[in-house]
Amino acid sequence: TFAIAEALGSVNGIETQVAHFPASWCADDELQKDGVRVIKRFGKKPKPIDFGVPALGNTPICQAMLWGGMQLCNRHQGSRKILLVLTDGDLDNWQWPQAHKIVSRLGKAGVEVFAIGIIDSVVDAWIPAGHGKNINEIKELPEAMISLLKGALLDR
Questions:
Q1: φ and ψ at 139, to 5 degrees?
Q2: What single-letter DSSP state applies at residue 77?
Q3: Mean pLDDT in the chain?
Q4: Contact, 68 vs 19, CB < 8 A?
Q5: Which helix H or strand E contains 67, and what residues bound it?
Q6: Which of 18, 46, 61, 146 is the most exposed, fewest CB within 10 Å of its CB?
Q7: Higher pLDDT, 79 or 136
Q8: The pLDDT of residue 126 is above 80
Q9: CA–CA separation, 96 vs 143, rounded Å?
Q10: Distance between CA 60 and CA 87 in Å, rounded?
């Protein structure tokens, strides 16, 4: 995630923010509302030390998308807003319709949602066709990221 934030941050006109969900393991002063920990803010350079995030289970993708979408909706008008979800977790079957509804509502609000499912995650069930990729090994992440974002940025 650090390499992605650093690479995107080097592109003129692209601003990124990175957050971690759930963030119950970090100090209270690092937490935002809803258990979010922002590890790289808009306009700031990423620091490798901030990206050491432990995997603790629990994958609140719906809450994460709502929080991220609200962050983007509050950004300047006229700028393109892309929410990229990276997850190594999977939704329970009952959450798929909710996640699909959130993606649809964010789209109507001008936020494009893309997702990459890592190893055990399957994003095809809740992300529109062409907006998601699933990978089986972490070494596939750079290629998946490039093809997904290239399509997103060049097809518009």
A1: -65, -15
A2: T
A3: 80
A4: yes
A5: helix 61-73
A6: 146
A7: 136
A8: yes
A9: 26
A10: 10
